[in-house]
């Protein structure tokens, strides 16, 4: 289960730009190795599922590598912006309105840049994939991202069941359980 989770996570980090924390070189090298393995598996699965030729598969791999560098830059920028915004929005500390406005605008611009990057990648893929193949690839990636979110959510639930509460590590207060109110009964 853990190995499949790591494989899912690494693949999604490429195409979908989930934030990565900075790691020591050995961990980064391991992540790069896992990412490469997952990309190879995904390409093989895409080739089989979508009926890609060897040439299309090679071009898909090349396109993914071409865009992964830009995606990584956007991921790093998103992480820095989130950290800066989080530090401005600390409870009990007055936020600098101008700084928050600039950071919020930068986050919106970043989302637009991510959307443009996806558009550019799809445009590049249209050179060697049919419209049906592009749609199949999109669905495969969406399903994969959904599965990663499920696995990640499941891990979070397991942590809470084992005595940990979400938010304790980052200084947030854990959510309190909400009491259910019963509807009034008719007499």
Distance from first to last alpha carbon: 52 Å
**Biggest sheet layout:** none
What kind of oligomer do you see? Answer: single chain
> Given the structure, what is the number of helices?
5
Spans where pLDDT lies below 50 across 5 or more residues: 4-24, 164-183
DSSP strand (E) fraction?
under 5%
Q: What string, H for helix and E for strand, traces the elements in order? A: HHHHH
Label the structural class. Answer: mainly alpha
- Helicity level: over 70%
Q: Compute the number of strand runs.
A: 0
Please tell me about this protein's structure.
- The structure is a single chain.
- The chain has helices at residues 2-16, 25-50, 54-88, 97-125, 131-161.
- By secondary structure, it is mainly α.
- It has one domain.
- α1 (2-16) packs across α5 (131-161).
- The longest helix is centred in the middle third of the chain and has 35 residues, at 54-88.
- It is elongated.
Please give the structural blueprint.
Blueprint: H1 2-16, H2 25-50, H3 54-88, H4 97-125, H5 131-161
Helix pairs in contact: 1-2, 1-5, 2-3, 3-4
How is this structure best summarized?
The chain is mainly alpha-helical. 73% of the residues lie in helices and 0% in strands.
Task: List the keywords.
187 residues, mainly alpha, 5 helices, 0% strand
């Amino acid at each position: 289960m853990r190995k499949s989770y790591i494989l899912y996570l690494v693949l999604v980090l490429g195409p979908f730009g989930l934030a990565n924390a900075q790691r020591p070189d050995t961990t980064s090298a391991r992540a790069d190795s896992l990412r490469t393995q997952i990309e190879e598996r995904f390409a093989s699965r895409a080739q089989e599922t979508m009926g890609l030729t060897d040439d299309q598969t090679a071009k898909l791999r090349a396109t993914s590598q071409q865009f992964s560098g830009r995606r990584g830059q956007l991921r790093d920028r998103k992480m820095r912006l989130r950290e800066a915004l989080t530090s401005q929005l600390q409870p009990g500390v007055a936020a600098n309105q101008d700084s928050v406005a600039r950071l919020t605008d930068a986050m919106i611009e970043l989302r637009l840049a991510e959307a443009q990057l996806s558009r550019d990648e799809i445009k590049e893929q249209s050179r060697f994939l049919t419209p049906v193949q592009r749609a199949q690839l999109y669905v495969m990636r969406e399903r994969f991202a959904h599965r990663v979110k499920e696995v990640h959510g499941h891990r979070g639930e397991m942590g809470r069941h084992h005595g940990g509460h979400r938010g304790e590590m980052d200084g947030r207060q854990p959510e309190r359980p909400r009491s259910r109110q019963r509807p009034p009964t008719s007499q």
